[in-house]
Amino acid sequence: MFTKYIKAVGTGKKHNYDLSVDQMYTATKMMLEGEVYPEQISAFLLGWRLKPETPDEFVGALKAFDEYIIKTPVQNSVELGYPYDGKRNNPYLFSLIAQQLLEHEINIVVSGDTLQAGKDGITLKEICNNIQTPSNLYYFDRKVMFKELSNLTQTRSRLGIRTGFNTIERLPNPANSDIALLGVFHKPFMEKYAKMFGSRYKKLIIVKGNEGTSEIYSKCQYWIIENDSISEHTIDPKDFGIDYTKSWDRISLEESIQNINNPSDELVKIAKLNAAFILFAYGKCASIQEAYESL
Question: How confident is the model at residue 248, as a pLDDT?
Fold first, then answer.
């Protein structure tokens, strides 16, 4: 039965066809339920990427995901959607951001897993397993929260490339958060993310941030998706007196943890700016500048 879905995405331009929401929902459930051989999953994921993926197919896969994700609501929370293939060049900021927001009663929600195929970076899970996290940071381990997708890690790793699952897995919303931040490399992907995730949150903010995350390290664009509208903006750390130099060299896990536990003054300022951005996104302040000055 699954062969028909492989044929839909893997028989070439003349014979490929886009799957409907319901078809993608069924195909995804079969993969998550373990009803499909690893070779078939790899064939489908590769063909799906090359076809390429459509918004309806993403919606269908997300619909299937929702049936398996274990939800644990967290009040006053903002979800930060990080790539599951890790970061390579700069330290994660989510812990430092959460510390800045403790007194403002905003909870930060993140999720992680063992490394997925892609850029071979340091995973969020590795960081959370090796640092002391603030009380307002809620980490959800996908091995527990969404074990069905976590169980496909080995198959995806053997395939060795990014697939459509890399795109849609980043915002599982395990805490039923109303607000989410997501990173993007290129503007066209912003439009895909807006279609996929915009209706799932009261407010979705997409940032052309550092290494495909929502972390602001330098001047970048961001988009606010709210009430079916999209507005585009720009933020520049230099406007806040911050002159942080991003790293382009690969960072080790030990170096990343050291940066988090003993951040430089400039890294603290960058974390403060990101926290101010979240304060503004949450509606606690009328502007990012006002939020920055309140921290």
Answer: 81
- Check: CB of residue 44 under 8 Å from CB of residue 6: yes
Contact between 81 and 171 (Cβ < 8 Å): yes
Q: Extract the tokens encoding 138.
A: 């809620």
In this structure, are residues 94 and 80 in contact, taking their beta carbons and an 8 Å threshold? yes
88 vs 235: CA distance, rounded Å: 23
Give the DSSP letter string of 83-134: -TT-BSSS---HHHHHHHHGGGT-EEEEEE-SPPSSS--B-HHHHHTTSPPP
Query: In degrees, to the nearest 5, what angle opens at C-alpha 169 toward C-alphas 42 and 13?
Result: 45
The pTM of this model reads 0.95
| Crossing angle between the packed helical segments 3-10 and 38-50, to the nearest 10 degrees | 30
List, run by run, the mean pLDDT of 10-residue segments along the chain (295 residues).
96 94 98 97 97 95 98 98 94 97 97 93 97 97 98 97 95 98 89 92 96 94 95 97 86 95 95 98 95 96
- The pLDDT value recorded for residue 118 is 85
Yes or no: say if 60 and 20 are a contact pair by the CB < 8 Å rule.
yes
The amino acid present at 253, given as its one-letter code, is: L
**Residue 287 near residue 240 (C-beta atoms within 8 A):** no
Beta bridge pairs of residue 235: 220
**Distances from the Cα of 25 to the Cα of 10, 35, 71, 121, angstroms:** 18, 14, 20, 30
Cα(141)–Cα(150) distance, rounded to whole angstroms? 9
